[in-house]
Design a protein that fits this description.
The protein has one domain (2-105). The chain has three helices and four strands. The protein has helices at 32-36, 61-71, 73-105, and strands at residues 2-7, 10-22, 38-51, 57-59. Strand 1 and strand 2 form a beta hairpin.
């Protein structure tokens, strides 16, 4: 999944490479991850540009993308979690709406 996000003066194309989102299960004693839940997300910055004060852009290149990813890793991950959570919420809403439509049709 590729997403476009803004971090400071950067516009980044970020690809989510791995997502683990296990909800907590207080009845499970198998491991702390099962009991408390686990949320992990891995990403790579595919491309990016930087904007200057005048609105001009410059391509970051491979090394620039790696540097921005290293410098802003926590913020990028936070923004991507917002995207993932919004997608899950929209999917749940769509499923609920489809069930309601099916019920109305019956």
């Amino acid at each position: 999944m590729k997403h476009s996000i803004e971090v400071d003066e950067y516009q980044l194309e970020v690809e989510i490479t791995s997502v683990i989102d296990t909800p907590p299960d207080s009845s499970s004693w198998a491991s702390p991850d099962d009991y408390y839940g686990c949320r992990e997300l891995e990403f790579s910055v595919v491309s990016g540009v930087i904007y200057d004060e005048d609105g001009n852009t410059a391509d970051l290149g491979r090394n620039g993308c790696a540097a921005v990813a290293e410098l802003h890793a926590e913020l990028i991950e936070e923004l991507l979690w917002r995207v993932v959570d919004a997608q899950k919420e929209n999917a749940a809403f769509d499923r609920a709406e489809a069930r309601a439509e099916k019920w109305r049709a019956a």
